[in-house]
């Protein structure tokens, strides 16, 4: 049963997950040369958590409650939903195409860098919208799973924050502007949660919440396979990535057993 307490906790988790893009901005400037191996590992870890929780917790709960047919339909609708959003973003500005931690600060490239940073911020904002809905919807039905998904999304939002802040910093020489744009791109997640809540509010029931678990599982699997793993492998630490994936699954498995 949904209560105002659940709504408040779900919204708080979504805000924390979304605004972790600001952490990426801070990392970019507190550390001169962030080691890409850490990013590879963290992205793999996040992917492992998302894949495991989707197939072991979210989807099975939906299948058991609303049946294989409707649970499977909800799962693939989640994939379709995030896939359509993903395909509307031009590849150049797509956060999946984030290609590194360096930038060119020559004057002739400042306008291009600023444009890249702004479009990346916009693209990430659009991309984070369904992630906010996923975190919020899961937390409404199960606070424990909501926390896990919020942490996983927060981890993968960090390099997205870096990808926004670095080009803007090189273009403007302003850490403040870089941080603000990175921070704002993460606001799309709580906005997604709020919009989703008011859309779902008239229809909220146990069946809708269980269906939402399968829908969220589809979103999480798509994000892990299409975004996190390819991005992690871009840094060239393949064994580190798979180690992160396995550890993410192990941690999730242990937490499910213990909790």
Task: Report what the structure shows.
The protein is an all-alpha fold and 259 residues long. It has one domain. The protein is 82% helix and 0% strand. Helix 3 packs antiparallel against helix 4 and helix 3 runs antiparallel to helix 9. The two termini are 20 Å apart.
Mind sketching the topology for me?
Elements: H1 4-18, H2 21-30, H3 36-66, H4 68-87, H5 110-141, H6 143-172, H7 175-186, H8 188-200, H9 206-233, H10 238-258
Helix pairs in contact: 1-5, 1-6, 1-8, 2-6, 2-7, 3-4, 3-6, 3-9, 3-10, 4-9, 5-6, 5-7, 5-8, 5-9, 6-7
Flag low-confidence runs: 97-108
> Residue-averaged pLDDT, rounded?
77
Per DSSP E runs of 2 or more residues, the count of β-strands stands at 0
The 3D shape can be described as globular
Distance between the termini: 20 Å
Estimated share of beta-strand residues:
under 5%
Task: State Rg.
Answer: 18 Å
The main pleated sheet reads as:
none
Describe the structure concisely.
With 259 residues, this protein is mainly α. It has 10 helices and no strands. It is globular, with a radius of gyration of 18 Å.
């Amino acid at each position: 049963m949904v209560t105002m307490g659940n709504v408040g906790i779900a919204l708080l988790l979504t805000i924390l997950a979304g605004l972790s893009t600001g952490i990426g901005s801070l990392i970019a400037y507190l550390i001169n040369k962030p080691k890409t191996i850490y990013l590879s590992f963290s992205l793999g870890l996040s992917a492992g958590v998302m894949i495991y929780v989707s197939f072991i917790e979210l989807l099975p709960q939906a299948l058991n409650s609303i049946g294989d047919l409707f649970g499977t339909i909800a799962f693939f609708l989640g994939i379709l939903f995030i896939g359509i959003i993903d395909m509307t973003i031009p590849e150049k500005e797509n956060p999946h195409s984030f290609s590194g931690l360096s930038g060119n600060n020559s004057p002739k490239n400042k306008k291009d860098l600023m444009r890249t940073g702004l479009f990346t911020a916009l693209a990430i904002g659009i991309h984070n919208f369904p992630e906010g809905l996923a975190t919020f919807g899961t937390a409404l039905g199960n606070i424990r799973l909501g926390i896990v998904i919020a942490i996983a999304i927060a981890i993968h939002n960090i390099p997205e924050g870096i990808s926004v802040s670095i080009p803007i910093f090189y273009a403007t020489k302003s850490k403040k502007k870089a941080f603000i744009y990175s921070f704002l791109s993460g606001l799309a997640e709580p906005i997604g949660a709020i919009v989703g809540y008011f859309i779902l509010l008239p229809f909220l029931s146990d069946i809708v919440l269980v269906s939402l678990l399968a829908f969220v599982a589809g979103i999480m699997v798509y994000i892990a396979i299409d975004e996190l793993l390819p991005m992690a492998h871009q840094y060239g630490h393949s064994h580190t990535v798979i180690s992160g994936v396995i550890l993410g699954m192990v941690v999730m498995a242990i937490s499910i057993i213990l909790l």
